[in-house]
Specification:
The structure is a single chain. By secondary structure, this protein is α/β, with parallel strands linked by helices. The chain folds into three domains: about 15-310, LarA, N-terminal domain (Rossmann fold, 3-Layer(aba) Sandwich), CATH 3.40.50; about 320-440, no CATH class; about 445-480, no CATH class. The chain contains 15 helices and 20 strands. Strands 1, 2, 3, 4, 5, 6, 9, 10, 11, 12, 13 and 14 form a twelve-stranded mixed beta sheet that branches. Strands 15-16-18-20 form a four-stranded parallel beta sheet. The protein has a two-stranded antiparallel sheet with strand order 7-8. The longest helix is centred in the C-terminal third of the chain and has 20 residues, at about 445-460. It is globular. It starts with 8 loop residues before the first strand and ends with a helix.
């Protein structure tokens, strides 16, 4: 099952494993989410790249969003079988003292609810019986944080969970899937989830890709296991599964993501955060500089495997272009997208428009495509629009702090003055005003959310997270304002 392990290896100053002078990525075939089988694959992968976990191990999965009974799909998060397998495989070496797994889900949503719906608590409970060391699961949004130096283009310092900041080893478990503004998600972009909502919202706009690269300097994983068994295509929050049947492993996040990008049909220049990372000195910047081993051993093998994800149709690119999707659905909603920087004639492609794509993606999955034909012909504006807009007696929504337009004949104009405006912001303000059945009006959706937010708040109080945040504001935020 494993490739020969007598190849020459050495460790670079960044701590990344190289094989014959180049970063090493192992790709293994795996058709089903069989935990026992995945344990063997991960153990083999660790041997292949020469990774040895030690001390306190921090595991970071990808849990953007999940819901009860999988109503919104099951490929927005790392499958629990991969999570359980990673915990079991990492707990075996005698050099490991304990394992802690933590994540922060999408902005405005409590992590513990996504853990519950994704089956993480049950999975960790089962796996604990097989581990020889303590294995815990925690929510980043509920834990106290340490401040770490970044020195980046967006962040000078960042507050991250202590269990990550004080870990000896970091292991990332990204889910390979498409993304509506970043093209794809992988090991590099997984770092967005090390931020709590306050830090996460900072420059989640036209500087998003710079932010992602900043986070890589403090969130550089020692080992990566990418879940590419069922890949998510379309919008990353409500993706549609397509079978790829692979697990991708390595110690270099750029290398693993370049392999993942190729499998999705992309190259470095198609993935903005990878391009930015390469421009700032992170390597490799090309598949030619990567040694690929395992069941796939080169670019031709990757391209052959990628054919399983075809076709690149409307489903593959679902909710990655708002105008196209509204047209596809025969929806009367009118969307105007202006400039965030009017003087420079630049649109913000990674801020509020991402929130709108996710918002509509949720709406379609909840209400169905046919419901969009019956929507109200409201006006929705992002950015600064020069042309006058006739609302024709209907409501108009300005989304984001920079949104502005000369709107006439509007029944009502509502502005959400946030930068950036998230899908949750839109859901809370717009609710059912589009004439579409809205999840936020559904008790079955809202009651578990509200009750979990209450529990999360009590946990934060008990763990003194609120107290720590207040002290931070008094020492840093208030001092600057005074």
């Amino acid at each position: 099952m494993s490739v020969p392990t007598n190849n020459k290896r050495e460790w670079t100053e960044k701590g990344e494993n190289v094989m014959n002078g180049s970063p090493h990525v192992v790709v293994r075939r795996c058709e089903e989410y069989d935990r026992d089988h995945i344990v063997k694959i991960i153990q083999s992968g660790m041997d292949d790249v020469g990774f040895r976990p030690r001390g306190k191990v921090y595991i970071k999965p990808n849990v953007v969003f999940s819901t009860k009974d999988g109503k919104y799909g099951s490929t927005a998060y790392t499958n629990p079988a991969v999570v359980g397998a990673a915990i079991e495989a990492l707990s075996n070496p005698a050099t490991v003292d304990r394992i802690d797994m933590g994540e922060k889900t999408a902005i405005g949503y409590p992590t513990r609810l996504t853990y519950t719906y994704a089956g993480y608590y049950e999975e960790v409970k089962k796996v604990r019986k097989k581990t020889g060391v303590p294995a815990g699961i925690f929510c980043i949004d509920e834990e106290r944080r340490d401040s770490v130096f970044v020195g980046g283009n967006v962040h000078d310092n960042l507050r991250i969970t202590r269990k990550m900041a004080r870990a000896d080893v970091k292991v990332y478990l990204p889910k390979l899937k498409c993304h509506c503004v970043s093209t794809m998600t992988g090991a590099v972009k997984l770092n967005i989830g090390i931020c709590s909502d306050d830090e996460r919202a900072i420059r989640h706009d036209f500087l998003l890709n710079d932010k992602i690269v900043d986070l890589l300097s403090v969130g550089y994983p020692d080992f990566i296991v990418m879940d590419a068994i069922d890949v998510g295509v379309g919008n990353e929050a409500v993706p549609t599964p397509r079978k790829l049947g692979l697990i991708i492993m390595g110690t270099n996040p750029m290398a693993v993501d370049l392999v993942g990008a190729r499998l999705l049909g992309y190259n470095l220049d198609d993935v903005p955060y990878l391009k930015h990372a390469a421009e700032r000195g992170f390597t490799p910047a090309s598949l030619d500089d990567i040694t690929i081993s395992g069941d796939l051993t080169g670019v031709e093998d990757l391209d052959a495997a990628a054919e399983r994800l075809l076709p690149y149709d409307d489903e593959y690119h679902s909710w990655q272009d708002v105008h196209r999707e509204l047209s596809r659905l025969g929806c009367p909603i009118r969307f105007y997208w202006g400039y965030a920087k009017k003087a420079e004639q630049k649109k913000c492609e990674t801020g509020c428009v991402m929130g709108l794509k996710m918002f509509f993606g949720f709406q379609e999955r909840y209400a169905g495509a046919e419901a969009f034909k019956k929507a109200k012909p409201v006006v929705m504006v992002i950015g600064n629009v020069d042309e006058p807009i006739d609302a024709k007696g209907h409501e108009a929504f300005l989304l984001g702090s920079c949104a502005a337009a000369d709107i006439v004949n509007a029944k009502k104009i509502t502005k959400i003055d946030n930068c950036f405006t998230t899908a949750v912001d839109m859901a809370q303000v717009i609710r059912g005003r589009l004439g579409l059945p809205a999840p936020i009006m559904d008790p079955a959706q809202v009651i578990p959310l509200v009750s979990t937010m209450l529990v999360s708040s009590l946990v934060k109080t008990y763990k003194m997270r609120y107290f720590q945040d207040i002290l931070h504001f008094l020492k840093k935020g208030l001092q600057k304002r005074i």
